[in-house]
């Protein structure tokens, strides 16, 4: 497709369950980002990939959060033993740029709304 | 810590009136600056970006923003609001330095447009 695709759009899970969120970036985009958007807040950075390499995971809230992009394209964000505070919209973005000095914009998917009961 | 401040979590205007959404950043070095719009249950759509080529940046849907270094501001404006402009607007920055790939967002401003 032409844009960033995320699935599922909505996910409801019981506390303690594991969840996996998928992101399919724009074809050819080198950089991929995950953000967490709590209700009424702006998105907050979670992690960054350049191709298959995870270069920054400083925003992941705990070791229950894990992200991968094994072939440098599709990425999965996994949350283990979910807790209620994990409820949020998880946004994926991709960017063409490899070069940090450019101001290439990030293109966002529609997000996955995660609700933990 | 570097931050982005959006003054006013909620702005309400009448259709046809001027829209002004405020954004201030904290940095001694001008960062890359962006405005995104988010419609309900959707992701973020880029409105415009500051490229340092011109201080007045024109974006989509009639929006523009002016970069003012002396005020560390990048306010978003539109001369005449339309009902379809009702959405949440986020200012975002990318700072220079080691982690300049990540976006730092403001908390957003919800724009409502009254008929």
Report on this structure.
The complex is a heterodimer of chains A (117) and B (115). Chain A is an all-beta fold. Chain A is 0% helix and 47% strand. In chain A, strands 2, 4, 5, 6, 9, 10 and 11 form a seven-stranded mixed β-sheet that branches. In chain A, a hairpin with a 6-residue loop joins strand 4 (31-37) and strand 5 (44-50). The N and C termini of chain A lie far apart (33 Å). In chain B, the strands form three sheets. In chain B, strands 2, 5, 6, 10, 11 and 12 form a six-stranded mixed β-sheet that branches. In chain B, strand 5 (32-38) and strand 6 (44-50) form a beta hairpin. Chain B starts with a strand and ends with a strand. The mean pLDDT of chain B is 90. The A-B interface holds A 4, 6, 31, 33, 35, 40-45, 48, 55-56, 58-59, 91, 93, 95, 100-101, 103, 105-111, 113 and B 4, 32, 34, 36, 41-46, 49-51, 90, 92, 94, 99-108.
Features:
heterodimer, A: 117 residues, mainly beta, 7-stranded mixed beta sheet, 4-stranded antiparallel beta sheet, 0% helix, 47% strand, B: 115 residues
The low-confidence runs of chain A, each spanning 5 or more residues with pLDDT under 50, are: none
Helicity level of chain A: under 10%
How would the global form of chain B be characterised? Answer: globular
Structural class of chain B: mainly beta
Radius of gyration of chain A: 14 Å
- Integer average pLDDT of chain B: 90
The largest inter-chain interface, given as chain pair and residues per side, is:
A-B, 30 and 26 residues
Any low-confidence stretches of chain B, pLDDT <50, length ≥5?
none
The main pleated sheet of chain B reads as: 6 strands, mixed
| Residues in β-strands, percent of chain B | over 45%
Radius of gyration of chain B, in Å, reads 14 Å
**H/E element order of chain A:** EEEEEEEEEEE
The number of E-state strands of chain B comes to: 12
- H/E element sequence of chain B: EEEEEEEEEEEE
């Amino acid at each position: 497709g032409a844009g960033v695709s995320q699935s599922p759009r909505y996910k409801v899970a019981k506390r303690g369950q594991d969840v996996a969120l998928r992101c399919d970036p724009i074809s050819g985009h080198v950089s991929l980002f995950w953000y967490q958007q709590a209700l009424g807040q702006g998105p907050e950075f979670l992690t960054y990939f350049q191709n298959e390499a995870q270069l920054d995971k400083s925003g992941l809230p705990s070791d229950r959060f894990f992200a991968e992009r094994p072939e440098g394209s599709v990425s999965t964000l996994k949350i283990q033993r979910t807790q209620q505070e994990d409820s949020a919209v998880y946004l994926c973005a991709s960017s063409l740029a490899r070069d940090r000095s450019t101001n290439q914009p990030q293109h966002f998917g529609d997000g996955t709304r995660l609700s933990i009961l | 810590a570097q931050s982005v401040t959006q003054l006013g979590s909620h702005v309400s205007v009448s259709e046809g009136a001027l829209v002004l959404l405020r954004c201030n950043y904290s940095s001694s070095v001008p960062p890359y600056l962006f405005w995104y719009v988010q419609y309900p249950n959707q992701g973020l759509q880029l409105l415009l970006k500051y490229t340092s080529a011109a201080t007045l940046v024109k974006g989509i849907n009639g929006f523009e923003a002016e970069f003012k270094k002396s005020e560390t501001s990048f306010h978003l404006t539109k001369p005449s609001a339309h009902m379809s402009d009702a959405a949440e607007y986020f200012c975002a920055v990318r700072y220079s330095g080691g982690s300049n790939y990540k976006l730092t967002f403001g908390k957003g401003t919800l724009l409502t447009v009254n008929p």
